[in-house]
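As a warm-up, study this chain.
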Amino acid sequence: MSAVLASNAPTRDAGEARDPGVDLSDVQGNILRGYRKKRVRHLTAQVIDAREARAWIAAIVGPDRALAPEITDAAHWGKQPPDVCFNLGITFTGLQALGLPDATTSTFPEAYREGMAARATKVGDWDNSAPACWQPWFQSADAVHFIVSLHADTAALLDDFEKSLVAGLAGRAFKVCGRNDGAFFNGDEVHFGYRDNISQPRFANISPPGKYDDQPTAPLGTVLLGYPTALEQLTWTLPDPPVLGRNGAFNAFRVLEQDVVAFEKYLDDAAGQLLDSPLAGELLPAGYDGDGSPSARLAAMREVVAAKMLGRWRNGTPLALSPRTPSPGQPVSDTDYDYIDDAAGLRCPIGSHTRRVNPRNARIVQRVANHTRRLIRRGIPYGPPYDPANPDANDGVERGLLGSFICADLSAQFEAIQYDWINLGLQDPRITGSNDPMLGANEGDAGWFDVPTAKGTIRLRGVPRLVRTRGGAYTFLPSISALRWIGAQKV
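Now compare it with the structure written out below.
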């Protein structure tokens, strides 16, 4: 990781008091505040003319809309975003393709310079998730220069915007090599049937009250370069010149296929394992009043398994606040909870997905890491919803999530979560050696997941790999000032 000491860096819980202000008009719009559009299109593009590409970048932050559309920043749209929100991520090879000098590009962090494909083993991308199995436009990693992201409420708006985009200066600057379209369905539901987009870091004077996680306010350096971080006396090094880095962020863009057929089958298998245990009564939902039939008991236990694996019931209710029912008698917060008083994982298993990736204040081996690896997550499903009434129609259909994992340091945040927490379980000796039951690189018979109860622990075996990577890239999301600087280069 690349870092320097900073005399004004805050302690872990002092972000709100010490964070300097940020000029939102200099930050790309989807970093600190989500758009909440119903559809997205990510265009993977390759630079074909460096001079024209720099001219196009100058145009998207310039005043002439006849040359190019305006990139969306965090200040222009306020309560009502534009009909189409437009953002740009640039890979390391993209910076090189733009003609930026080695003296500048070499000052970016190693993880970004090497790229996602080269660091596949650090994030669990092996076997059928390896880069050789990715979508064609991601397989030649050196050819991925831009990811142009468009957000809108209708497919027609996306189509019209893309046509106008490539018909102008952009058409001479780069070529579109691939498209990844996504769309929300059933509100915030994702393909495994869970409610998503619940928990995000809060930033002082930026995050709307009541819409973000009730955890300690995150310093701006959690996601933006040039600001104090949650690590005492440490801030991330800015590229040279500093204008190129300040107010920018890194993005691990991922195309993640979700195997819903395997997931539903595993819920049956795991529920059967639990029902066969003498501890089954410790797990069935509180007030369970099924008809006593095997099918009713199986259906109830399937939902217990789904909740234990994720750390939330499928409706979003956290196990930490309601461990025995998805519908408690009184409203509970989606975000105001902790694991500090659940050391044994009786309410929320230590190995569950939400607890692995965000341990909150729970006691973990890497104690300093509790709040230092937070990410901004922007995700939207792709592919048709799973049809439980017609299981045969779901086989062979690809569906999944288009995810952006935004941070200030790819190695210390995104990769550390993927490697240490998701695929090794290093935060607690009781789960070390197991993988995340939802995102982990599980290998069939070798995959296991522990479900603790007050009378003992049941180990579920045979956890399959439920998510595989179909493509992705490490990009940099430059500030408006940085884009202006890039566009002005004469190289």
